[in-house]
Specification:
Number of helices of chain A: 12
Order of helices and strands of chain A: HHHHHHHHHHHH
CATH class of chain A: Mainly Alpha
Number of domains of chain A: 1
CATH topology of the largest domain in chain B: Rieske Iron-sulfur Protein
Largest interface: A-B, 15 and 12 residues
Oligomer: heterodimer
Strand order of the largest sheet of chain B: 1-10-9-4-3-2
Number of domains of chain B: 2
CATH architecture of the largest domain in chain B: 3-layer Sandwich
Strand content of chain A: under 5%
Structural class of chain B: alpha+beta
Order of helices and strands of chain B: HHEEEEEEEEEE
CATH superfamily of the largest domain in chain B: Rieske [2Fe-2S] iron-sulphur domain
Helix content of chain B: 10-25%
Distance between the termini of chain A: 41 Å
């Protein structure tokens, strides 16, 4: 059954239409397998070859992949929530309640969005702890660690901007407190708060600005840095495995008990 | 090839700056000017010129509405009107810590902030908590119609009472 399916898929991949789109045809050779990755605009960010050992759970605990998964869920549920939500003072809270009590599956989508957001923050931290305690941030991966820190900040900003959108008491006061923390910046503090809120209070302008940041600017920034993050994994020698590191790391590593 | 070399020969008037270098500097300079202009444009665009925010001057009504020895919070204007035996005064009810709205707790004779636990006396002096400053006194006066007026945009020194 499986063999039949593979044979059928190979046949499809050798058709003229498929090859006009993906260019690489099917074949048993490693070259063919490599071309599938190399010649796809999305997949070429990833390593052409990965050791099977590195795909086991124990190598990475899949934390980065799970983070990407939550991001994907957040993008899809977020776009759907946008169809019923108006970022305006009279309507925002009512729309949130409508999503819960009037829109079919609205409650499910809203909760999925919220829980995925919490999960994403948790997973980003877990991923960073894992990378830190494994020493995977060390050269040549130090720049990818920096990209990771940027992605942490983008994640937290996405969380923060999304917090205002339900426009309930918790949202309002959380953003009041948060924007006052921002105004503690020396010299420019008050100006930063003014630009952030588009006024002196958390009001209509602030709601709209946070909405645009949450739904457009920050997700695009996240995608941009995620692309660099993945591409750098390939450029920096693939997923980090302690055993495959150069001698300098090995000599310090094998004297320690395994993690 | 010969033409290119000719372009790159230095002129006697300006040694060290050939034509190509000149155009490179012109180009980079223009880009710099454009970038600075874009930054200024972006900053101006992001700063709203007209704000639909409430006026800082608010009418708090007749003094008779505030009995002696009372502290009254108006949540819409975020102002405390206090009627002490020395007279009336107004406090900004926004906590000086991180901007939450404080509330009057008559049972402990205290203005308390729900967010991080700052506590103030009815005259705005901090008793405990993270607030860095006392609650500011606001300029208050009687209008010609005899209403208590408060300017939320003007802080005054404490202990300036309005006597009616």
């Amino acid at each position: 059954m499986n063999a039949t399916f593979t044979a059928y898929f190979d046949q499809v991949r050798n058709t003229r239409v498929w090859r006009s789109v993906f260019r690489s045809g099917a074949g048993p050779s490693t070259l063919h397998n490599s071309l599938v990755i190399q010649q796809n605009v999305f997949l070429h960010l990833l390593s052409t070859k990965v050791r099977k050992r590195m795909l086991e759970f124990n190598a990475t605990w899949y934390l980065g992949t799970l983070t990407l998964g939550t991001f994907g869920i957040l993008v899809i549920t977020g776009i759907l929530l946008m169809l019923y939500y108006h970022p305006s003072v009279p309507q925002a809270y009512a729309d949130t309640k409508d999503l819960q009590f009037v829109v079919s599956s609205g409650q499910f989508l809203r909760n999925l969005h919220r829980w995925s957001a919490h999960a994403m923050v948790f997973l980003v931290f877990a991923h960073m702890f894992r990378v830190f305690y494994r020493g995977a941030y060390r050269p040549p991966r130090e720049f990818n660690w920096v990209i990771g820190v940027v992605l942490l900040l983008v994640t937290l900003l996405l969380s923060y901007t999304g917090y205002l959108l339900p426009w309930d008491q918790l949202a309002f006061w959380a953003i009041t407190v948060g924007s006052n923390i921002a105004s503690a910046v020396p010299v420019f503090g008050a100006k930063i708060r003014f630009l952030m809120l588009g006024g002196h209070f958390v009001n209509a302008n602030a709601l709209l600005r946070f909405y645009v940041l949450h739904c457009m600017i920050l997700p695009l920034a996240a995608l941009f840095f995620i692309a660099i993050h993945f591409w750098r994994i390939r450029k920096d020698g693939g997923l980090y495995a302690r055993h495959s590191e150069p001698g300098a790391v090995m000599t310090t590593a094998h004297t320690r008990p395994p993690l | 090839m010969a033409d290119e070399n000719k372009d790159r020969t230095q002129t006697a008037a300006n040694p060290g700056l050939d034509r190509r270098e000149f155009f490179i500097r012109m180009g980079l300079g223009s880009l710099g000017v454009a970038a600075a202009g874009t930054a200024a444009f972006a900053y101006q665009f992001l700063s709203p010129n007209v704000l639909f925010e409430p006026s800082p001057v608010v009418n708090m009504g007749k003094p008779e509405g505030y009995p002696l020895d009372s502290v009254t919070l108006d949540v819409d204007t975020r102002v405390f009107v206090v009627h002490d035996k020395e007279g009336f005064f107004a406090l900004n009810a926004v906590c000086t810590h991180l901007g939450c709205l404080t509330a009057w707790k008559p049972e402990i004779d205290t203005i308390a902030c729900p967010c991080h636990g700052s506590k103030f006396t009815r005259q705005g002096v901090k008793k405990e908590g993270p607030a860095p400053k006392p609650l500011p006194w606001l300029r208050m006066w009687l209008s010609d119609e005899g209403d208590l007026m408060v300017d939320r945009g003007t802080d005054i020194r404490p202990m300036q009472f309005v006597r009616v």
